[in-house]
Amino acid sequence: VGVDIVHPDHDLSGYRLVIVPTLYSVDDGVPTRLADAVDEGATVLVTYFSGITDENDHIRLGGYPGAFRELLGVRVEEFCPLRAGERVRLTDGSTADVWTEHLHLAGATSMAEYADGPLPGVPAITRHEHGKGVAWYVATRLEQAALDKLVHRLVEEAGVRPVAATRPGVEVIRRVAADGRRWAFVVNHTDEDADLDLAGHDLVSDRPTQGPLRVRSGGVAVIRQEHPC
Are strands 207-209 and 200-202 parallel, antiparallel or unpaired? Predict the structure, then answer.
């Protein structure tokens, strides 16, 4: 899916899914913008050790994750970092490492709890309906497979659609000009040719395509698309 990396001060209106990874220090405007986005229907994911201090590195009082506590519907009483190499199991079958938090629900719903480790039975992943949208919190560092599964669920929940159906290793990104013209950029990082359903004019080969478009292994394509997809 198309991804923007934006500053916390960026306008979030128009985004269906916003991911906030370990954003430790934030001013008061950031949680307000996030809450506004969720109220309008966005899905937001915040990860552990976020919202702890203000922009002057002053600890936010009242429990963690300070700046995002109300939006997420949780209150963290204490941090419980894990030792190097230590792992914990979650009740959904996944594993995690590095970090855990003694978390209390304050409106949110627990989606998975710790099955062992220092905090058995304590929520590790939560979901909080807020306005028209949803705010998720992950209080630990999930293994890659579990993280992939969660991101897939969030993408589906938020109604985010890919530029084109593809497979891992084949990158497709769309760029849109102010006048509405669109281009799809394709990079095939894999060792096999890839076929994609993209219509338009391939600027690399200088020929039209109505799909499927074949992009050779290690190859690229830039498709000028005359009409929005």
Answer: antiparallel
For residue 220, the surrounding DSSP H or E stretch is strand 220-225
CA–CA distance, 82 with 147 (Å, rounded to integer): 18
* pTM, to two decimals: 0.88
CB atoms within 10 A of CB 92: 15
Residues with pLDDT less than 70, the chain: 227-229
- What φ, ψ does residue 33 adopt, rounded to 5°? -65, -40
Q: How many C-beta atoms lie closer than 10 Å to residue 161's C-beta?
A: 13
Burial class (CB in 10 A: 0-12, 13-18, 19+), 8: middle
Say which DSSP state 28 is in. Answer: T
